[in-house]
Amino acid sequence: MASRRPDNFDGLAYRGGRDEPHYSAAYSTRSAEPPPPQYLHWVTTPPDIPGSRNLHTGERTPLYDEAPGASGGPAGERDWNAAAAGGPPPPEQLNRLAGFGIGLVSLFAENVLTHPCVVFRRQCQVNYHARCQHLSPFGAVAVMYAIGKAQGPRALWKGMGSTFIVHGVTLAAEGIIGELTPLPREIPHRWSVEQLAGHFLLKGLTAAAALPFYCSSLIETVQSEIVRDESSSGLLDCVREGLARLLGVGAPHSRRLLPLSCLLLPAVCHAVLRYAVAAAVQRAALWLHRRVEGRRPADAPADPLEAHFPELAAAWLGSLVADALLFPLETALHRLSLQGTRTIIDATDGAAGGDGGPLVLPVNTQYDGAADCFHSIRRKEGWGAFYRGFGALAAQFALHGALLASARTLLRLLLDAKVG
């Protein structure tokens, strides 16, 4: 027998029998008449928890904006049966396919394909001997090709494993600090000044915790392959060298090696400012995109790519603006981090010019701190020295953006072929 609604119902969820609808909290009435269909949601027994498998045969979890029977009823079954029979897949499956494909391409382009640009950019930033500042991407690509041809492909992808380790340490540190402190890991849509300050403080503490490993990863990315000792190099060298620099043990370094306390301020400022600028530009780009999309007709067909590509494009633009604005600070930070480590880098002039110059150069700087570093670079090398290797940054984001656009075009063709 079907159970009847209690008399004291006032907008609370009412669950009937196995095949009876429950009344949504959005419908509040004491009338004896049943609520309209838009306030009904079909449930199972036991209650269906999102992500669980408490469903009957042939059913799936209904969405809140679906009409009764749209997901598990005949209409939903027709969509999934049509896809299984070779017909066009449902929009939900197309949305997942588009999101996975374009997200995977963006991850590959950001962390693997453009890594040679990161390597050469950092080498240019710390190479105060170089005559050419490589402000153009064309000259930077020519030098990268010459270095790869002379030393092999490994010279362009060196230190890539350590960059992944630094990302992992950063995520772990942020998670641990977020659990042990009340600092928010995410900024809500309506935030307060206290929440924003706490969130930025969390990012600063995370950057400080990952600083020793960032310094060791920097050494691996700029160290020349010509002088690298293969017998003593390994994947976890970044962790070992980071802990050794943090604890002050291990191989002795030069007396010019700066303590981590001198690097904390520029490192934290760079991390927090980069995050703030990138997030602000990303939100502004998404807001502008929504304004433009709001002018489209309401009956326009939904585009699966538009659910994922705008966010990735906005993140790409935010990273580009942040890295371009903070390039001078990053240059000073890398020079301070590398000082006293006895690192030998590739010569970014002689490798391309073929003028008989040296293939490798030592890094012998004598900065007393961040202020002295900025003052020395401006006085001895000029303002343009702060942007050494900027062409590699331009090439990096140009390659990343071109790959995103190509992936979007290819996925568009594949989705049109599936739908057609």
Task: Describe what you observe in this structure.
This protein is mainly alpha-helical. The chain has 13 helices and 4 strands. Helix 5 (160-180) runs antiparallel to helix 6 (193-222) and helix 9 (309-325) packs antiparallel against helix 13. The model is unreliable at 1-5, 8-30, 38-58 and 63-78 (pLDDT under 50).
Topology:
Layout (H helix, E strand, L loop, with lengths): L20 E3 L16 E3 L31 H11 L6 H23 L1 H12 L10 H15 L8 H21 L12 H30 L14 H11 L12 H34 L15 H17 L1 H12 L5 E3 L3 H4 L6 E3 L7 H12 L8 H30 L1
Antiparallel strand pairs: 1-2, 3-4
Helix pairs in contact: 2-13, 3-13, 4-13, 5-6, 6-7, 6-8, 8-9, 8-10, 9-13, 10-12
In short:
It contains 13 helices and 4 strands.
Question: For the report, how would you describe the main beta sheet?
Answer: 2 strands, antiparallel
Number of beta-strand segments: 4
User: Which quaternary structure do these chains form?
Assistant: single chain
Helix-strand string: EEHHHHHHHHHHEHEHH
Strand content: under 5%
Mean pLDDT, nearest integer?
Answer: 78
Principal-axes shape call: globular
Q: In order across it, which strands form the biggest sheet?
A: 1-2
Distance between the termini: 48 Å
The value of Rg in angstroms is 28 Å
The helix tally amounts to 13
Please state the structural category. mainly alpha
The low-pLDDT segments are 1-5, 8-30, 38-58, 63-78
Helix content: 55-70%
For this entry, give a set of tags.
420 residues; two-stranded antiparallel ribbon; 55% helix; disordered N terminus
